[in-house]
Amino acid sequence: MQSGRPRSGSPWGALRGGRLLQDGAPGGPLLRLCVRLVRRPLLPAVRLWRRNIQLRVVAATLLISLSVVLALGFVVIAQVNKGLLDAKEEAAQSQAAGGFAVAQEKANAPATVDGPDAADSKVGRDASTWMNSLVKQLASGGQTAFEVVALGAGTGEQALTGAQGVKGARASGNVDPTASVPVSLRRAVDHATGTFKTFSEIRYTSGTGQKAPEPALVVGKRLTDINGDPYDLYYLFPLTQEEESLTLVKSTIATAGLFVVVLLSGIAWLVVRQVVTPVRMAAGIAERLSAGQLQERMKVTGEDDIARLGEAFNKMAQNLQLKIQQLEDLSRMQRRFVSDVSHELRTPLTTVRMAADVIHDARVDFDPITARSAELLAGQLDRFESLLADLLEISRFDAGAADLQAEPIDLRDVVRRVIDGAEPLAEHKGSRIRVLGDTQPVIAEADARRVERVLRNLVVNAVEHGEGRDVVVRLASAGGAVAVAVRDYGVGLKPGEATRVFNRFWRADPARARTTGGTGLGLSIAVEDARLHGGWLQAWGEPGGGSQFRLTLPRTADEPLRGSPIPLEPEDSRANRARAAADAAGTAALARPTEGADRSPIPPRSPVAGAMPVPADPTALPGNGARVVARPAEQGPAEQAPQEDRTDGR
Asked: How far apart are CA 241 and CA 234, in angstroms?
């Protein structure tokens, strides 16, 4: 038996495989064109359905009420139909039973030769004449309420073998006897005793002006004629009045149901409109408030729930406007204060700097304590000048006055200048700065001054917190992005500090002494410089496992970033090393030899050059060729990790 799965060579299998939906596949563009042609007119309707709650409520009310009306209509029509048919059957059976009794009584009446009943006597008359008279007499009492049909014994006009007497079909009212009495009913009457009934149609002969057939209830029974021979007598009761009554009930229910559905839909529309209109007004005002039009308010009428909602909304908008205005005033005052103080302090600072330089140059003539004070004064003045410069830069960012001078630059040149400036500090700390990924040009449209300031801050911080271990600077480019990552193996960052590290004046451990005279604003300015380029500045760290800061910039100005060519979590982090060890253990377990096999040790696989692990963050781009940062041979991972958990961060 063949399987129900379509074969690959069939058109259905090709469609299931997606080959018909591809550009190069036959029929693919045609299918997509058909889908677009069908979907295009439906999109406005779908959008209106999703955005209009009033339409959904009215449509739901319409469907529910229509379902209820249809269900009730079917039930009522079924009950009325059953009642009409039951009443008709009862009356028809009673009428037919009386007719059958009269017919049998006339057939059993004794023969007479004279008197008033001479017309009904058996003497001198045959069964055919008697049957014609009987059908006419029985039908005369119906007055179009029923018709009478007499058939010879047997199924149809064919009489039973050896039967005598009535051998033809007789009917009243131009009724076609053989077409009006179903064959199944005739067979039932011929082969059993008693009264039988069924529903059929009364069909008329062609001489009646092509009168249309009528539904009817047919009741039949086997009787005997004046000679004692069997024949079948049928009463046909038209159901025209019942059909007209049922049609009237159906039209009444349909009209009433349609009226009820329209009425319920109108009521739902009016009720929902009273609720949805204020909600729409509130949504529009909320959109205008979010756009900055804080003076917008809702129109409140009445004292109901909607009115209370409007009053609460207006009060919320008023308080929001007041708070935003207060925050704007406070922010404006802060920016002005910082800018004014920074500018005003430059003049006295210049005077103090001149005096301090004179004192610092003449310190050889002072006693040791005074000379040391002159050196401290010069150092703190340098730090004060840096702080003022950073405050001025922050005030420019806050005021939106920062200017970007973007031009195509090679980030390798910027990294070299930064490393040249940080080499003295690295030698003092006992660290070594290594660069990876500088074999190919890394070109991007950026402001060289701002990028150099960001990287200088990251490298100096890495050396400062690297605990004398190596600092690795990695460059990479992929897609429309370039990235520079600075990795250190120092104290690292505790959970939650990777985002707080960019806050102004934030320090993980305020008691930690600075050796580079930092102002606490370096990373805040760096992240603003990255945002000014349309890029990212992100941090990762683990306690005792070091940290990594990643700067991602678009290749061209105003190009949106979709990812970074360097993973934010470095490949040599503890989590990645644990996963690599687990994978290696699973591979070794699968490759373990069985009993009696060669137990020579299997050499470990060497890492594949240019292998890229699974990115640690969703913004990493695949296929960038990043490599694991190699440590010096004389210093293993255990030696690089600190002996105790250091809690100091940036």
From this structure: 20
